[in-house]
Amino acid sequence: MKLCNRSTNSISLLVLTFLLYGLQACAKQAEDPFVEVTFRTMQPIPGQQTAVVILKAKDGQRYLPIYIDENQAVSIYYAREGEIPKRPLTHDLFVNVMKNLDARIERVVITELRDGVYYANLVLQRDDQTLEIDSRPSDAIALALRTKAPIYAHRDLLEELPHEMPMTPKKSLQQMTLKKWGITVQELTAAMRQYFKGQKGVLISDVQADSPAAKSGLEAGDLLIQVQKNELAGLEDFRKAVRDVREDAEVKLVIWREGERKTVTLRLK
Known about the structure:
By secondary structure, this protein is of the alpha+beta class. It has helices spanning 2-30, 70-81, 90-100, 137-147, 190-195, 212-216, 235-243, and strands at residues 34-44, 50-57, 63-69, 104-114, 117-126, 129-135, 151-154, 175-178, 183-186, 202-207, 223-227, 230-231, 250-257, 260-267.
């Protein structure tokens, strides 16, 4: 009798093990392969007419870097800053058309990486219809930012941020970082000059938290056009202008923001 009980218990344990294994396998298969991501940052690539958009998983420390061209970067910049151009860009036109057709973007989904190219879908809702439209990820992101639609990505595309993909710009011949000021500035590309309507200067591409620059109100995306009395035509002018600035000085800066000149006092004391 005892032998029979042992056999019965062993069989029951074996059956239970298989059931648990099966439930775990089913749960894994049922797991949604897409995770919601948020727009983390966009950084220009020094010396190239490209930028990198970095998306971050909402549920962890995993990222998706996607390279885009500078025209797409300008459109995304408009969306991030809430800027409305005098004449609609292609993405603004698309949004306007959807509004007139009583359609909306429910979500955008970055689906796969194939032959080095990312693919995405726009999921549109109109009445009781759900439509999926093939899209470049850069277009999908630009539209999502304009319409506040959520962005999803296949979890297999997410990765730990590689060392060669920093969250802040690298110093290069086209960029300069002043640690004591807390800013990184860079040369303007052709598309950026068009965005700033021909205004000369250097772009503030990064402002460090709690730095003198941040405390003075400077923001990433500002165009720095003057340091003290020195007008800036480019990065070389900026280098020359900051050479003689004392470490404890109050520096008068002129920036271009939202189509207007603004004077800012940078206190280095």
